[in-house]
Amino acid sequence: MRQNEAFWIVIRRLRAPFLAIIVTYAISILLLTLVAGKDNDGNVYYLTFFDAFYIISYTANTIGFGEIPYALTYPQRLVMTISIYLTVPAWFYAIGTIVGLFRDMAFQRALKRISFRRSIGHINEDFVVICGYNSISRIMIEKFQLYGKYRIVVLDKIEDKIDELNMEGYYPTVPALAADATMTDVLEDAGISSPHCKALFVLFEDDDINIKVAVKAKILNDNISIVAESSFSAGLQNLKDVGVEHVIDPYHYVATRIEYMLNTPHLYALLNWLSGGNLNLSKKTKLTRGKYIICSRGRLGKAIKEVLLKNGIEYEIVDIFKETKAKEGGDRELLLKAGIEKAECIIAGTPDDAVNLSAIITARKLNPGIFVMVRENKMEENSVFAALRANAVFVMDRIVAVRSYNIIARPMVVRFADELCKKSDEWGQHIVGRLTEIINKKPQLKEININEEEAYALLPTLQKQTITYRDLVANVDGKGRELELVILGLLRRSGEFVMGPSFSSNFEIGDKILIAGTDDAIDEFEEILNNFGKLYFVLNKQEEPNWLIERLSKFIQKKVQSPKKSKEL
Amino acid sequence: MYSEKVIAGFFIVLALTINAGFVYGDIENIMHHSVYELAIAIVINLIATTMKLGDRTQVGSVLLATSLVADLQLFAAAAVWGYAQNVLGHVDAQMTTTIVSLASGALVANIVSVILYISDTVHSKR
């Protein structure tokens, strides 16, 4: 309502300039019609209202066509002089005020708000709302734009950031508004209560803001999925109580990954790949047990500490961020004091990239063979971190962004990642081996629903016969060529989730499958599912008999035979 | 007592009275209808319209609408008069009828406006 208020206040401010013009015009016109003039023959002539209005109209804005219809008499000129000094300033005052009003920030904001609301109203597809425009949302916007199933709406408090977003020139356009997302009316304008709105992302650092937005959005629309960030266990519970299904705790994810690295390196490789990293498991990601130095005091340090305690690993926490900021000591002394020379691993996890970089470089000087894990806060520093060649880089923003995106766009991937902890490292090794063996390059992920839309040809065929994965993937051309893809997960209609289903599993209507493969293989697989001819060929290793061609060939055979018969006759 | 309310009420009622004064008289006889009265009626109506600008209540919006209707009718009357006087050369009975009936339309709009204004005042608790 506050924004609307501004609009009305601005309209009210138009009153004064309008009144000034009306009153000065009225006085001048009336006086002009009352004063006697003379025509060319010397007869008395009174200006009509039309004449007077005409003269004042061109006088007030200083155009000045001259004295018409006849040269004015002296009394008339006296009135004209008064009129000029009345109407010209009134005119300028009015013009100045009106131009000023359009430049008024509050008024412009109100106009922007109106056009934002209109553009939301015009979206006829499903969309998601992202609160806050930062490096996290930038990654998400790019991913969602590529994915193409959802339009995006962005809210941010800061006007400059919205300008920055508009400069990006996204297509399809991303409607954005500079407003406080904690206000109910702002959320309403962003279309939260629209049936097209499918999800809301609140990924602020501040848990209080996240919960405020989440509660309001949940009241406005109970059907949307809310993805919120929280790094306190209390805040996490709080969000769950409110009804937020997806709570993201980035520090917990980092700690979990360290645990995977410690115990199940192959599962770690899988997890890392699922969140946008590389799949290969090289020597430098092999983590050994020994003394760990954690350069982080805050929430990340706490999460890592718990993991290390659980695994019985000796650790030392160094508050390098606070001490270097307070100029109390260089990182060299601090690291030496913590016993860097005998340490096995250093985790630089402060919220300051410069501090992290400096700690790592110093640590490497003191202990060249040390295992290095580093937290990257700002995406802008990407090339520096790449040059560092750390053993593991945790990009906080990317972790949050990819996870958030996956929750809405690729729920199977999230499910797969969450179920990984139930599997052994041998299983992980098997899957990683299969993936690298079959696909070699960076595999793509794809979720396919076995339904009318995504498996058009398969569905009617399934009603007639059972089809296993082997039937469609192995030997697609009758000469033994296998599609370069791996079926990672299967979600049965009953809700049962199978990790890495075997080749002899059956396709069933209503299943969802998660596959990884090369782009070409995924395309071909989709073609098999949707094209009757192709599906028939893959299943029977021969072309589908065509009704028309059959008739034609029979017809031609007859024709060829019949002349012979006539000759015989 | 708000001075703003007094001024607004003054102009709304004045727009009606002057409008009524102009319409009153023989509908075919131009001598019964003063051109000055029409001019002042237009000015007062414009001022009344401006006073209603920016009132975003339901009643305020309807008041603004009625006022705009009155303005439109009076502008039309003035335009017909100007056309008859300056293009045709004289204002005959037919033209007079047109002018006065247009102004009567404006009168109706002004009456509605005043009724709304009074009912709003009666309804308000203070």
Structure characterization notes:
The complex is a heterodimer of chains A (569) and B (126). With 569 residues, chain A is α/β, with parallel strands linked by helices. Chain A has 4 domains: 2-103, Helix Hairpins (Orthogonal Bundle), CATH 1.10.287; 123-248, NAD(P)-binding Rossmann-like Domain (Rossmann fold, 3-Layer(aba) Sandwich); 252-413, Rossmann fold (3-Layer(aba) Sandwich); 439-569, Regulator of K+ conductance, C-terminal domain (Alpha-Beta Plaits), CATH 3.30.70. In chain A, 54% of the residues lie in helices and 14% in strands. In chain A, a hairpin with a 5-residue loop joins strand 1 and strand 2 (44-46). Chain B has 126 residues and is mostly helical. Chain B has one domain (3-123). Chain B is built from 4 helices and no strands. Chain B has helices at 3-23, 35-52, 58-88, 93-123. Chain B starts with a helix and ends with a helix. The model of chain B has no long low-confidence stretch (mean pLDDT 90). At the A-B interface, helix 1 and helix 2 of A face helix 2 and helix 3 of B.
